[in-house]
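Note to self: keep these together.
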Amino acid sequence: MKTEIYAHRGSSLQAPENTMAAFQLAFQQGAQGIETDVQLTKDNIPVLIHDERVNRTTDGKGYVKDYTFKQLKQLDAGAWFSTEFAGATIPSLEEFLKWIGGKPLTLNIELKNNKIDYKNMETIVYDLLRSYDLLDRTILSTFNPNSVQRLRRISQHLNCALLRSRKKRQLISYAKELGANAIHIKYRLLSKSLVQQCKQQRLHIRVYTVNHPKQILRCLDLDVNGIITDVPNIAISYSRKV
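Structure:
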């Protein structure tokens, strides 16, 4: 098995996270996959932004859910990072799918519904992925266990991952009971025994957010399915040496 390198919100240390510039840079650097985050606007358009509020990564204020898509597109999502990226906008999921369609990339779309449980988010995202024929190379991940169950009810064939940042007893059996076929864990939860158990149970394991060389090498040594990193160029360079 070859560990895949996923660019976390794109190449997010060199370009503003979750913008087309960050995704394009990650692709140019050789990432095998891109991880991004989805929220819903007031008019139920899925858009790519990590936070529930726009304050940190745009020149706006307030919740994504209180903006229409047209209003959200007026915000500058690049100037906070560097004047070089001034004028960048928050992409819609559809804009991203159009861009990625012809590229040999795996998608990891995180549904940001653990704080705001957006109504029908799973169906909206699923239908859009199906319309672009991208379901087969997409992983849908979420911290929300109810969302995992809803995804599995939509389709038995979805690649669905449960996200965890904290320890949980019997994590593998819990994830499988929900209907997940993968777990995405914070780096500090990684252990050799957990990886071995995942392999025995045919559950994929991917690790976030892995930026330091020692962490990258440990993930590669343990042969995890995926590394989710802010520095895909560095992770790729190490993976080529292993």
